[in-house]
């Protein structure tokens, strides 16, 4: 599904929501707690929205123990309970689902598009999207750590001197994505839940379509291989010349690595299994810049370090320096990719590329990829899904091999999810009074699921040869979740006859305006 369709849907939602915004105040009439707004909110006491006195005031039904009455400043608010206060059957079931779904996503190479988490947290944990999206980012961060650790020693399928992860490509795409996450986090904070859910449904359908296409290609490839012997894959030798003939559309590779100092420098850089100085440290710096701007601006979770007033001119002005700095990082990395293309062309022409290399020029490196990555960042931090889908499509469209795309996406996700997770924490977007208990618990669950998926489950899939069948199941799950989210959204909108949760949320507090 193209960016134009998603962008049009987003604009349509904004037009519909304009003018709906209402504030839930003390004394407003109510029938149930949800009439007083999304958590954190007032309680419904004797038909009026008011400050809670005990935990039972916050319950949505008689046996509800998932809410707490918490002192916030001079008043009280209803909030979600901590993850271990107590650890309920619902929490255990959600934890099991998180591990299973992250394992399935990691094993199928769908780590960057794992969109099953947000619906699970909304439908099972009964969280609003404002809490479910940050929680999904924490889970995906753990999963990405596990997947990247699994890929750490793997090599390029057609160039044994290169790691499987394309660090240069990640170095350019990640900063551009981080710029989008800055705005996506703000969007998640202020947009009404139903808009986020509608966008999530669109992305779930898009993921289902992409997964079905991937499964169909795998089935077709398997049918071809059953009628002919597999061609032996040539492993590049360590001498001066490398030749590849088994990837027909790329032709023959003949690169003399001793033909010049630039080529030797490029070969040395490409062979580094963990290029900390060249690529990893700049990505850590980019994440640091995104987090520092959140600390300086402050939010519901953490006050500004320099006393910036929320929604003031300085508050918005502090967005400019990090955006400019990270954009300069993106340009610098794009120039590196262009330099790599020039070196290859000057030492072997375009026919000398290793399969999976992108032919970088000014437009592709500095416009096409960064623009796509920006929208990917907005999508992943706004609805918890879609960023990986955009990344995958743009990489595959320009010739990146599926194995390289999967490993590189997982590596990028470590930094993108870390930046999102920390920005959400500073904005107070995790559920519970403590917040960090939810965050680190689901990071751990994501890591466990990622390790299980990239080891045990992936090996079973490889032995059984049933990846296509599992992908069809994943696509079916995505469609079912889209339907469930649609019904849930429709139900919540119909029940909210006062329009409390239909409008925009306040940027500087939990109430609606």
UniProtKB/TrEMBL annotation:
Q: Principal place where this protein is found?
A: membrane
Q: A GO CC term?
A: Cul4A-RING E3 ubiquitin ligase complex
Q: Where in the cell is it found?
A: Membrane
Q: Does the keyword Membrane apply?
A: yes
Record field: transmembrane: 95-124, 164-187, 193-213, 274-295, 315-334, 367-390, 410-427, 439-461, 467-488
Q: Which residues form the signal peptide?
A: 1-19
Q: Its membrane topology, per UniProt?
A: Multi-pass membrane protein
Q: Which UniProt keywords apply?
A: Membrane, Signal, Transmembrane, Transmembrane helix
Pfam families per record? TauE
Going by the entry's taxonomy, the superkingdom of the source organism is recorded as: Eukaryota
Which biological processes are named by the entry's GO terms?
protein ubiquitination
- Report the InterPro entries cross-referenced here: TM_pro_TauE-like (IPR002781)
The protein, known as: Membrane transporter protein
Instruction: Name the species this protein comes from.
Output: Aphanomyces euteiches
